[in-house]
Amino acid sequence: MTQAVIAVILAVVLLLRWRSRAKRRTGDAKRAWSGLGRVTSDVGLVAAREMRERFRGRIFRVGTLLVLAGVAAAIVIPTLDKGTSQPQTVGLVGTFPVPLRAIVVSSAKSAGTTVRFVSVNQETAYADLRSGRLDLAIVAGQELVVNKPIASTDTSTTAELVLAVAKQLGVAEAVEAAHLTPAQSLELASAGALPVRSLQRGAVKGATQTTSLIGLILIFVMLTQYNTWTLIGVMEEKSSRVIEVLLATVRPIQLLTGKVLGIGLVAFAQASLIVVFSLVLAKSVGSDLLHGTAPVVLVSTLVWLLLGYAFYCWVYAAAGSLAQRQDQVQSLAFPLSLPIIFGYVMALTAVGSGSPSTLFKVLAYLPPTAPFAMPVLVGLGAVTWWEFMASALISVVCTVGVARLATSIYKRAILRTGARVKLRDVVSSAAG
Amino acid sequence: MGGLLELEKLSRRYGRITALDDLSFSVPAGQVVGFLGPNGAGKTTTMRAVFGLTDLDAGTVRWNGVPVGQAERRSFGYMPEERGLYPAMLVGEQLEYLGRLHGMSAIDAQSATTNWLERLGIADRVRSKVDALSHGNQQRVQLAAALLHGPEALILDEPLAGLDPTGIDAIGAVLVEQARSGCCVLFSSHQLDQVEDLCESVTIIDHGRLVVTGKVDDLAHSGSRRLVVRVEGDRDALWAKGLAGVTISEVDAGAARLVLDDSVDSQSVLRAAMAAGRVTEFVFRRRRLSEVFREALA
Known about the structure:
heterodimer, A: mainly alpha, D-Maltodextrin-Binding Protein, domain 2, 4-stranded mixed beta sheet, 16 helices, 71% helix, B: alpha/beta, Alpha-Beta Plaits, 6-stranded mixed beta sheet, 4-stranded antiparallel beta sheet, 10 helices, 14 strands
């Protein structure tokens, strides 16, 4: 995946280099290869400096720890009331035959828990349910009583136990009423469900929904953070005037490419760390994060984080070249963040509803919003592989165009000092 | 090492302002060349043009007869007027990084960093952040950044600005040493006394045009004669006022520095001084660079 990051950004660089070189090509192939080696060397040096400084920064280290802590909480907390939780206490009111107790124990096992039986009278059972000492009361083997209503979608351990016990005791009662032979009863008990196929794509649920949400938040936070870093990094080089020393040695496009490549690799490294950490943690605590299409959503998230950064980093870098001071950063970054916020909100809405609108599907093909929309469509199962690839291709092509425009603005604005450079001044100077 | 930096017919306009107007001069190897002019004369624009930091409307910068490109610029050293370093980066790492951008290997850049920091007396600051250094030490680091890769040409914009006498001596010694080793050294400054001490040649521009260029010694011996006369008891040199063909350049503690027209006989000046009182000093002096500068721009 790291190779993919480098490949995409270097593709942009090489294409731009090729375009400019084509105009003044001398036919000296040897010199061209030598120049290309020098270009990649300079880009690598700039990128390496960016990576070193970012990795070393307190913001990166503390930020990474906070994100990992947040992800860990999101994964671990839902599992706390499952599996290794304390036994569920079941109050038995009246007689409750041993075979039926075995059914309750079996149901508890399927719900990932164990049970402890307590014999109580009805009044005590109700009181204990209200106080929480009992999780479930079975009255005369005929009725199940809980403290609060349980929805069929409730995934808590108690809910899963209650639903399983209710069903199994119902089946046991029906078997007994039908006067079946033991063999027939056994066969009935071991019956599996028929496969169910739906004609319509269903809404995203459970694990995939959680994964989509985590992925969306990851993309939003990282795109915002790292693009702002790019903007501030360019602005700082301009305001500290180190830009003159640098551009006396390397070309603007080399410097800019090295910067966005370095920051992009740091972003990708951090995102990969978070994803790997999430997967390992999810597996170790038995989270549902790895179930269903969730891993595919995670991979899609990484791919679109990369493509989203590649698209936006040039725009933010060009904006940074217009700034002169720290206090100008907010006013420059805000309009650039609007499509990011729009895409993020639309994606959150789509995940919540589980049914993407036509507008949302269109957004999945527009490079500014595709990083949010496409992973959600992947999670919903509402996109084919070639639609995914088509959107990615559109994004790469548009990124090349945006990179060319941004580089042009950067070259014209980065050495202008004094008041903040206005975009129209840069454009008019380009036209002039 | 050794080469010739030629600036040929450089022109640059910013709207209605002409920054460079058909400016041509050259900087030979082995000399420290002072680049002088009033504020806004176009010195910084010229230096930036050498490094491609200013787009020229016309003109060419050549190095040994070849138009300067990125490869040539990589062999130059540059110290911009507005000092440029990463404020939060460590001094040593910053210099190594800049050295590598000039094409040095990691080992060479590290070695050169150590050598230059020691040479400039700030070896103990190698692990300091730049913004923790004093102005003078930041200036030294900036100079080290320009020297690190053993440049063939050094272009320094106001390298002496804001330095104390010790700093001026240290940096001046380095510039002379570089020139003696065959480097082209061009530096701008408003401190004309220091320029006179350091430079073999000067180039003076105004409004983007070349005004004067030449060796300091030649310029000092050209132009009107300078005569310093001190008359006892006349601290304001009142005796010299009104003398035909004589201009009082300055009066310093009773010593009048006079500029004589070609037609003026120095003996007539001596007689006028003796008539005013006892003459304790009567000596011809060479033209100072500050006088060359003022007269060139007059």
